[in-house]
Amino acid sequence: MRLYTYRNRRNENKFIQVKRTNCGHYYIRQYMEWIKDENGQDKVIRNYIGKPKGQFSRITRKYILNDLLDDYDFLFASKEVD
């Protein structure tokens, strides 16, 4: 399964990640991401929205996912993930 990352059109710091399992279910997680400069080094700060510790939430209907992704632009797809 692959992990697809999308960026919100209205808020460039808001992202959503989507993964699809072999059984056809979709899992999503939303997060906010900032880059903070600390002593000349960039540090990525990521705050997950929804479930704790960045866990994925299951979406069983693709049309719900399509409605959600209307407000997002595709960024990239990662390699195979577990």
Polypeptide structure, described:
The protein has 82 residues and is mainly beta. The chain contains 1 helix and 6 strands. The protein has one helix spanning 62-69; strands spanning 2-8, 14-20, 26-38, 41-49, 57-59, 72-80. Strands 1, 2, 3, 4, 5 and 6 form a 6-stranded antiparallel sheet that branches. The mean pLDDT is 87.
Summarize the structure.
With 82 residues, this protein is mostly beta strands.
Unreliable residue stretches: none
Distance between the termini: 7 Å
Task: Count up the helices.
Answer: 1
The biggest sheet amounts to: 6 strands, antiparallel
Kindly state the percentage of residues in helix.
under 10%
Average pLDDT: 87
Describe the global form.
globular
Beta-strand percentage? over 45%
Number of strands: 6
Helix/strand order, N-terminal first: EEEEEHE
Structural class: mainly beta
Please give the domain count.
Answer: 1
**What Rg do the Cα atoms give?**
14 Å
